[in-house]
Amino acid sequence: MKNKIHPLADVQSENIGEATMIWQFCVVLKGAEIGKNCNINCNVFIENDVKIGDNVTIKPGVQVWDGVTLEDNVFIGPNVTFTNDLIPRSKQYPLEFSKTLVKKGASIGANSTIIAGNVIGENALIGAGSVITKNIPSNTVWYGNPARQTGFITLDGKILDLNMKDKEGNSYEIQND
């Protein structure tokens, strides 16, 4: 199956994987790379120096700026904000934008802000409205402004408290595949 690009989208990149859907009112600049089987919802802007893996979902109202990489199976909720310039000034651009990496399987909740230069670890869960100001370890759960760790998450999506126990008090050990 080839990709599906809505006629009201402005997709300048030719690096779009098979079975990827790009909805109306999206802009994807020429240098962007988007993998297979992605769902790029309406009103999304993707800049040039962006790499998006396979099976990624980006909900409406998201801008993915230069320097952002989203690995496979990442979920980006509605209106998530990425930054790429730690000292922004009008008409003054850095020599290089800060890099942000969202690793495989991570999920970022609606209206979260991801400050440039950070890494969000594999399978991490960022709660809605959180502000990420530092690197986030794999398999952890973070909420708040600034975000703080509130627990862990298993590969099958079970949330554990900081003592690695579920609601019933069962203990777990998290292993990455």
Short description, anyone?
The chain is built from no helices and 22 strands. With 177 residues, it is an all-beta fold.
The radius of gyration over CA amounts to 17 Å
Low-confidence stretches: none
Beta-strand content bin? 25-35%
Q: What's the average pLDDT? A: 95
Number of continuous helical runs: 0
What is the makeup of the main sheet?
A: 10 strands, mixed
Termini separation (Å)?
Answer: 29 Å
Question: What can you tell me about this protein's structure?
Answer:
It is a single chain. The strands form 4 sheets. Strands 1-3-6-9-12-15-18-20-21-22 form a 10-stranded mixed sheet, with no helix packed on it. A 5-stranded parallel sheet has the order 5-8-11-14-17, with no helix packed on it. Strands 2-4-7-10 form a 4-stranded parallel sheet, with no helix packed on it. It starts with a strand and ends in a 17-residue tail after the last strand. The chain is mainly beta and 177 residues long. It has strands at 4-5, 10-11, 21-22, 27-28, 33-34, 39-40, 45-46, 51-52, 57-58, 63-64, 68-70, 75-76, 81-82, 100-102, 107-108, 113-114, 119-120, 125-126, 131-132, 140-144, 147-153, 159-160. The mean pLDDT is 95. It is globular and about 50 Å long. The chain contains no helices and 22 strands.
